[in-house]
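Thread: "does anyone have the structure for this chain?"

Original post by V.I.:
We have the sequence but no experimental structure in hand. Need at least a predicted one for the grant figures.
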Amino acid sequence: MNRLIRFGIMVITLAVTTGAAVHKASTKATDWTSYYGSVGNDHYSPLKQIDRSNVSHLREVWRFDTKEAGGLETTPLIINGILYTLTPSQKVIALDGRSGKLLWTFDSHISATGPNRGLSMWQQGNERRLFAGVMHRLYALDPKTGRSIESFGTHGYLDLRESLGREIATQSIALTSPGVFYRDLIIVGGRVPETLPAPPGDVRAYDVHSGKLRWSFHAIPHPGEPGYDTWPADAWMSGGSANNWAGMAIDTEHGIVYVPTGSAAPDFYGGARLGDNLYANCVLALNAETGKLIWHFQGVHHDLWDRDFPSPPTLLTVHHDGKEIPAIAESSKQGLLFVFNRLTGESLFPIEDKPVPASDIPGEKTAATQPIPTLPTPFARQEITEATLTTRTQQAHSWALEQFRKMRHISPYTPFRLEQDTLVMPSFEGGGEWGGMAVDPRSGVLFINANDYASIGGLAVHKRSSSGRSVYLNQCSQCHGDSRTGSPPAFPSLIGIDKKLSSSDIEKLIHMGRGRMPSFPNLQTTTLHNLVQYLLTGIDKEADGRGEAGLSRIETEAKKSTILAESPGASEKEVQYTMTGYRRFLDPDNYPAVSPPWGTLSAIDLNTGQYLWKRPLGEYPALAAQGLKDTGTENYGGPLVTAGGVIFIGATNFDRKFRAFDEGTGKLLWETTLPFAGNATPATYEIKGKQYVVIAAGGSSLMVAKGSLGGVYVVYALPD
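Reply from O.Q.:
Generated one for you, tokens below.
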């Protein structure tokens, strides 16, 4: 097959940029001017004072404690000696880069929660503007004072719920990653719910001075637009997601913005969105001046596994077939790495369209094939067999073997079933995650960390209605399970929530969101009341308030009773299929039920597609104390690579370590323990000839014990 046809190449004149009119991030070696180091997200610094020979001498030189306990995933900007960053409650702060002294604070007075991974700084001549996403608002701030710039939007901010073609009050959108710049435009995506109703994931560009909308790319195509026929006819009005929450990259020389997108809503059942669903699960190359599509590649057709492209793409130059190629690399949750010529969309390595299993769920129609690159080979395991189950103890192995034989696993694209669980490898989290990849531009070698354990998924069926349980199954069960038991600690159990929260507390939580949970402003009046009462009591009251469904003990029989009671005789329009909850395949001691490593760090030469080295990343302190070290662990936040030949990475959840590795060999050179897990990508900068390395330590939502979440920036340097 001609890959260009598959990629959907369109003939569009590239906006070739020239001169000072184009905004570029500073190339000043002493600064960290963009979210991931550069507008191409290479996570690279040319600083080399800290190198392989002396990194073991690093010492903490200062820390700034935000005194907030919500967790941090933020990478600061460091420009002219000042750190610009966020607190867990999404206050914007400026810190002195040498001492950590607080210079100013901007408080939007919004009750903000959830991941917020960075800020963006626009500069043209002597004019600078700092842009911060706080929930559904995009603020423009004066970086000297931290005050909002009143001439931008409405008193200094934009409401991102606007201009989506939907009723504003019911839209849920938040910025988790900062926008990117092209000339006088800021281009943004946004995080949205993964169940319907959800807004479309439109990519939008705004004037950096006025806040005026300059262009919008419809992630769910409108009538007459390419890709419209890959959805049902009304999807552009009622469909949702296909959004960019991970961030973008921009090639300012050629005027192209690269946008990875996530899955369409709902994530796990696509009977109401039959078709390939462009432009969900895509890498988009858009004309940065106009928003017009140049090329696209879809990594998963008609996604039923929540396989977003989870990180900003990385731009680099590689040597391929004797030529110097401007390239783009994109990692995926399924543990695949795609590498393209970023101007044409041609894959640098062969991609095969491989047949995948069909669904047996009524109304569903899976894609016949999925694209798999031949090189590089997957950076996370794709299959799980009896031979790859845990051998940590004989008891753990026997338990895992018994469970494995009950479940279904044919390939990474095995569709879910009713009444039988399906193993998902890599896990729902990935594989690749939002921390992304580092590249040494001198060699074209890419460094990527990965999770390497399994999840469990399944589907349940119920009737559409506005009863409390029906609303719960439609909006909440994807994370908290069909029986409200959740998958602690990442997705807490809701049983007994009446002992922790009042009805008004729950209503506020539903409307505002918290942590990984998005807001649900669409739930109102009777529907909201019925849901809250179901959460508080476990009793399902119908929309009109009459009668009970007798489900106060559904915690033990939820799936079975729902399927048996509601499937027979239900019409196709009444039936709804929902995911039974994100569940990890863990043994009885809560360790992954597959063999280690459970987290890795790899080096891949993108000139050849070959691995140079791969090593476990992280360990469990309790297992290490028993002699089982270097197991690898779940990890979030990406690597930083420097001209000193050193890779810095935190990321690991359970050991709270910040580590430095040799770029060439993967050898551990240095490690230290952080106050909280460093689930953020580090940055480095130089002030008056001294190099510093900074990481945000905030802990992980997986660690729910008291005192396990915080918000501390920790900075290291060599002794004077």
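V.I.: this helps a lot. The chain is about 10% helix and 30% strand.
O.Q.: and Residues 459-580 form a domain with the Cytochrome Bc1 Complex; Chain D, domain 2 fold (CATH 1.10.760.10).
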